[in-house]
Amino acid sequence: MTDFKLGISDRTWTYIGAASAGLLLATTGKNLANEIGKEGIFGYGKSKRLASYGKSKEATWGNLQNISFVLIALTLLESNYDALERVKLANVKAKIPESFF
């Protein structure tokens, strides 16, 4: 039987986490390439090609970044749910006498 958290299966949570990481890496990589192209690293490595990477599809990159933020928020929500479940278990164990363990 598949476990569910917040009405979403564990398998789907795994896909959400992977998509979140992939989109975060892609959008951050694009922004990093733009900054390195503009400023370089300690002044070295400036490149007009890197500085303009993705500029023609700026709206698309913005949408991808927004989707990434939503997925990150979902993974944080899942993490908080897991933490609250562990706190609940710790409270239940604390109320049971030691002789039961």
Helix and strand sequence: EEHHH
Q: Major beta sheet, specifics?
A: 2 strands, antiparallel
How many domains make up the 3D coordinates? 1
Count, helices: 3
> Strand tally, please?
2
Query: What share of the residues lie within helices?
Result: over 70%
End-to-end separation in angstroms reads 28 Å
Q: Could you list the spans in which at least 5 consecutive residues all have pLDDT below 50?
A: none
β-sheet strand percentage: under 5%
- Kindly report the spatial arrangement of strands forming the biggest sheet: 1-2
Which class of secondary structure composition applies to the elements?
mainly alpha
Mean pLDDT: 88
Task: Please tell me about this protein's structure.
- By secondary structure, the chain is mainly α.
- It has one domain.
- The chain is built from three helices and two strands; from the N terminus they run E-E-H-H-H.
- It has helices at about 10-40, 50, 60-95, and strands at about 5, 10.
- Strands 1-2 form a two-stranded antiparallel ribbon.
- Strand 1 (about 5) and strand 2 (about 10) form a beta hairpin.
- Helix 1 crosses helix 3 (about 60-95).
- The longest helix is centred in the last third of the chain and has 38 residues, at about 60-95.
- The protein is elongated.
- The chain starts with a strand and ends in a 6-residue tail after the last helix.
- The model has no long low-confidence stretch (mean pLDDT about 90).
